Amino acid sequence: MHLSQPQREGFLGTLRRIICRLLRCDPQPHPQPRPKDNPIAFEPGKVIIMAEYPPGLELTPREIRDRVAARLAALKLDRPLNVNLAPERVIVLRSPQRTLATITGDVPAARQSPLLLLNFVSQLHHAIALPQLVPPRPSDGGPVEVRDSPYNKPDADSDPSQPPDAGSPAPDQAPAMLTAATPTRPSSADAQGFDLRAASPNWLSSGAPYIGGGGPGAWPIGIASVTPNATGLQPWDFVVPSSFQSPEQNPLPVEVAILDTVPDFLALESAYGTWVGNGPALPPLRDPNPLLTTLLAGPSGGPFNVVDQSGTTAVGSADQIDVLYQTGIIPVNLFQHPYPMASHGLFIAGIIRSLAPQAKLRLIQVLNDDGGGSAESILQGLTLADRPGRSVPLVINCSFTLRISRPGEDLAETLGADLDKALAEDLKATPGNTLQDKINVLTQLMHDAFVHVCQSSNVVIVAAAGNNEVVPPTGHPQARYPAAFDGVSGVAALAKDDLDPGTPDALATYSHLADDQLSEGFAAFGGDVAAGPAPLRADVANGMLGVFIEELPEELPPPTGGVALTPNTSGWARWSGTSFATPVVSAILANLISSNMTPLVAREQLGIDAPDIDVSNAVPARQFS
């Protein structure tokens, strides 16, 4: 099954937006998204299957499809369901240790039942799962080893003195659901080393009440103008220790891949004409936006300098931004994200360009304009980021979260409002065999994909911890995935006042905890939010300042309600969320790598240099404005 291509703006839409900016059009109501029948955490009726084989074995997508289908046919499942596989849905991730391939299949019988799909995927994963991969460490001198899952933890209500598998069903009970303590099978690879590794739902990534997907912690606020300083730091620059800054002499090359939203290419060209221009012969239509100039034209301005590299493995020069679009991103908008946010990825690119001007930026689309995506689009983004032939160190910035529940959360938000409550309660009454246990285990495919990329040469992955509009009484929630995956550095957000000497550091009110692995997590300035009722809005003075090239959302008061889109005349906005703390860490890691550190050593060094006073690994980086 092919997914529909997201609509792009087109010439007339671009022209309308330019005219609106010039004439200051009245706000236009944003069309409300279609209501979704089942606001669940994974694509209905879809399963992703992961295979692995030796790096020297070359297989076509059709050959991968055929081998996976043959393996599935040979399985003896208690409740088998038909799975339709298409070679067009194959994604290949390579590393020196192994090649991983994923294929997304359609399960027609489970299209209308999230619980049936989850049961089937659990049964399938139980039958094929290999031990989880383990990320490399800076001290590793030999090959990467595997170890037990970091998520095999006893439930909070269980006896902590018992081993993690306490309460698991006896072997002859044939549990209907895979538990977190269920051991994985030994390898049964064929003569060429091909084997199945894991199965998973196609987890979604999208705006939600706790702001999943690319959704930031607060709505953006338009800024009428930003006045550049004659000398010294600019309002959008950052004050950081000298050891965190871009090397002044002979910086080594480094790439930063931003997996996020990407504005339509015509919208980028329109923004160039509106706020950048090319000297006296082609002046911008509006006051120039210097930070946008560094992104769309280069440090000194000049011609449009963005290249669409979609469908190629080509890479432009270091001062040029490459954009890569996907045509199969699922058109998801869970919980009706109230405004378009195609500028999310570009805003992040501006933060990184300001802090690490020497880094080569590649903006890779994994989310649609509403911040919605899926495990499949993210897997494709990882493949595009860690491209064949890459020879320079790579930082991958993931300012999104997957809609996978963590322990203690309401499972109705994962399985939808139609969840069979009686069945759920019955399952919860079985120690070690809860729905949450099952969900924990079904993160392995994505966990292994991220770890696999980390095992490639010179790669580090940085991810947003997630946002909440209201912090629960129990404290800041756990980090969301992928930030919580072992090997991925999660990033929580600090408020601006937390960076003042003598002021106790504390996480921003909207922030999740940084990471499940404390040594891998960081906290950085992510922008302040204004006081007031939900929805949260970025603080007009202390939100993160950055580039924003689309219309700005404005909530309409009752009785009209809804959201209006207002013209953006400056190309600037303030925004807040862990999404924007994440590129601060990514950029500083890029600077350390340019100073002749490997990515893993750079991460370890940043953890040493970032102070542990009130918040672990609090990165001292303050925006100058």
Describe the model.
The chain is built from 13 helices and 21 strands. It is of the alpha/beta class. It has two domains: 10-30 and 206-404 and 443-623, Peptidase S8/S53 domain (Rossmann fold, 3-Layer(aba) Sandwich); 42-203. It has an eight-stranded parallel sheet with strand order 9-10-11-8-13-14-15-16, sandwiched between helices. β10 (321-324), α6 (344-355) and β11 (360-365) form a beta-alpha-beta unit. α1 packs parallel to α4 (265-275). The protein is globular. The termini are far apart.
- Beta content comes to 15-25%
Structural class: alpha/beta
Helix content, binned percent = 10-25%
Question: Any idea what the CATH architecture of the largest domain is?
Answer: 3-Layer(aba) Sandwich
Q: Round the mean pLDDT to the nearest integer and report it.
A: 81
Largest beta sheet: strand ordering: 9-10-11-8-13-14-15-16
Under CATH, the homologous superfamily of the largest domain reads Peptidase S8/S53 domain
Q: Count every beta strand, where a strand is a DSSP E run of 2 or more residues.
A: 21
**How is the main sheet built?**
8 strands, parallel
Question: What number of structural domains do the residues give?
Answer: 2
Count up the helices: 13
CATH topology value of the largest domain: Rossmann fold
Measured between the Cα atoms of the first and last residue, the distance is 49 Å
Question: Runs with pLDDT <50, length 5+?
Answer: 1-13, 20-39, 140-183, 207-214, 417-423, 425-432
Tell me the radius of gyration.
24 Å
Cα shape? globular
Determine and state the CATH class of the largest domain: Alpha Beta
